[in-house]
Every structure is written in C-alpha cells, then in structure tokens.
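Hi, here's the filled form for the chain we discussed.

Project: internal
Contact: R.S.
Residues: 239
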Amino acid sequence: MSEPHHPTKRRSLLAGLRASFLTGLVVVLPIGLTIYLIWTVVGWIDGWILPLIPGPWKPDVLVRQWFGPEATIPVRGVGVAVFLVFTVFIGWLGKGFIGRKFLTWAEGLVDRMPVVRSLYNGLKQIAETVFSQNESSFERACLVQYPKEHIWAIGFVSTRAKGELQAKLNHEGYLDVISIFLPTTPNPTSGFLLYVPEKDVVYLDMKVEDAAKLIISAGLVYPNGKEAAGVPVRNPSAK
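And the returned structure, exactly as it came back:
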C-alpha cells in the first residue's frame, strides 16, 4: 500500500513559512532601509565635503602626520563631523555683530546680480522655512471636501488668510478663511495650497504626525489601529 498523502499539512507548513517570511520582512526591511539610507547620506556628505578641505588640513593627511604614514581613517562620517563643526562655527559668527554686518554686505552684493539674486533669495526662503526655529508649523490636521463635494481629503491647517488675500476674500463675502496644505499620496512633500472657509473644515483630533503617516501609507497605517480595527464597516449593499 502506498503511504497516504497529507496535502493539508503540507499547505499549512507552507502557509506558516510564508507568514514567517512576511513577518521577517516587516521587521528587517525598515531597519535595513534606514541603515542603508543613513549610510548613503553620510557617504554623500563625505564625498561632497572632504574634497573642499584644503590639502594640508584633510583628515587623512593630519592623521598620517600625527600617528605615522601607515595610519588611516577607516571610519565613515568624517565629512559629516567636519560639516557639523563648520556649520556651528558659521552660525555662531552669523549671530554676532561682525557676522551680521558681513552677511548684510554680502546679500547687498548678491542683490545686484540679476540671476544669482533670484536663485539665492529662493533658496534662502526655503531654508528659512524648513529650518526655522520659531513655532510656525502646521497647527492641526483636518478634513476638507476635495476635489469636489462629498469627497474628503486630509489636509493640514497652516494659517489664516492675511493681507491682500484676506481683504479680497472678505470683499467676496468669505469670512474666517484659513489656508490648508493638501498633501499628495504617498509623497507628502508635494501638494496643493487651498484657502477654505473655516466653517467647511472638519478638524481632526489625531496628531499631525499621525495624519502624515496615514497619508504616506495610503490609508493602510491608521493611528490607534487597535481601536479603529474594532469599528465595523457598513456594507452598502446590506439592508
């Protein structure tokens, strides 16, 4: 007699292996990609900063002078350290009286260069917006009807309409208008700037970071997922 086959056990074994493999991917991929991105960015900064250092001051030259001709620097990230120290030093100078005077003179010189002026002012405005140390940031997450009525999208409340925008909108009968940044999925760095009457905005209790995760994951990563998982989804075809 031939031995009996057990297809059910074989399928359960394969299903278990598949589940373990997927679980391993969930654990390994975020860690591996994070390490890879950090390693890549550090190498990119090293490759950009180290060639700008004068020859006698290069880290490998100094190490050979101090520790002998056979000494080397195998550690990645020397350029990052140099960049951080240099940036802190420039920031410290920029906050002083002499540094401010020099920056004012240099910016006045740049303002007399037509093409360079536009490029510099644009990059400066972006840098000041991204690295600003004040409290200007998105206030809350919200829902707005976009691109048409009864279709909702997640946005971030920025500020209230000001200046000419406020005056024009008030003249048209729109009061209490707020500016909302509507990011795209899965890249939230791009999106649309909307001016919406506050009465048409539904504020969310979730944090801005949680709303950003929801947008990046295309709705797959929901804040407080355990509580949300218990909410039943109504079947439109059910009576």
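Let me know if anything looks off before we file it.
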